[in-house]
Amino acid sequence: MTTHELTIQLLKAVQYQRATDLPCKRINTFAFLKKADDLNSEGLGMTIRDKGIHFFSRKWGEQGHDPNSLKWDFPLLAVVYIAPEIKAPIRKNSDCPTNIHEFDLLLIDKIENQKASNTTPCQRRTENQIRQDCISLLHSAFQYLSEVIWAETSGSTDYPDGYYHPGELDQLRTDGLITAWLKDGKKSTKYKRSLQEVNEQSRGIPYVDKTTAGIRMPFFLMEESIGLVNFDFSNNYNKQLNSFGNSDVLK
């Protein structure tokens, strides 16, 4: 699984959450932030180009995804990319290099003015209650990731083989968007291992500022590098280098 594929699955983990009686009991926005400071910007640094890839907002969807008025609401699941780690970069020829990608997951909600009249149950929560709700919501996202599989699909080029939740696949088949799907056990197991081996125990950090509270948790993805560059030592390639005046490179 790549970082892009992980982002899509986290977005879907928010998108497919069932409606609840209280708006604070369901994640309403997902954002893969370009930089940590975007958490404090009005639109989280998102644009129409991020829709469905790095950004999902129920409130924005209700307003028709107006590109001139990007709206979102709490609770928010935000992802910040921290850094990659290359395990054993000098390796045996037969080994595939492995990257460990580190992220920060932030699940936060708004602290309401409890002194106002006619407050709702969501608005009356303390910071600690908000944090507990955010932990539960983060568990729901992890549950979704744990149920994702690799599946082969049939009947549509719009939904190629890849990572899906079985519930999503069943709905695609019901809607006639695919004709069938089949779980690939080997690839599904490899996917689970890419998350489980580097997230055996994650220690969260309470998050709080003047207006929001929640939980910050490190999260890791293990990815085997693909698409490595090959080397060319042929005479034809050497001649091409010489023709561009790069003969010094070969000395």
Task: Describe the model.
There is one protein chain. It is built from six helices and nine strands. The chain is an alpha+beta fold. The strands form two sheets. It has a six-stranded mixed sheet. A three-stranded antiparallel sheet has the order 6-5-7. Strand 5 and strand 6 (162-164) form a beta hairpin. Helix 1 (3-15) packs across helix 3.
Percent helix range: 25-40%
Low-confidence stretches: none
Q: Main beta sheet, described?
A: 6 strands, mixed
How many angstroms does the end-to-end distance come to? Answer: 41 Å
Output the strand order for the largest sheet: 2-1-3-4-9-8
Count of beta strands: 9
The run of helices and strands is HEEHEEHEEHEHEEH
Q: What is the structural class?
A: alpha+beta
Shape: globular
Q: What fraction strand?
A: 25-35%
**Arithmetic mean of pLDDT:** 87
Task: State the helix count.
Answer: 6
Task: Kindly provide the radius of gyration, computed on alpha-carbon positions and rounded to a whole number of angstroms.
Answer: 22 Å
Characterize this entry briefly:
The protein is α+β, with helices and mostly antiparallel strands.
Topology:
Layout: H1 3-15, E1 29-33, E2 55-57, H2 58-62, E3 76-87, E4 98-110, H3 127-147, E5 149-154, E6 162-164, H4 166-174, E7 180-183, H5 185-196, E8 205-208, E9 212-224, H6 235-243
Parallel strand pairs: 1-3
Antiparallel strand pairs: 1-2, 3-4, 4-9, 5-6, 5-7, 8-9
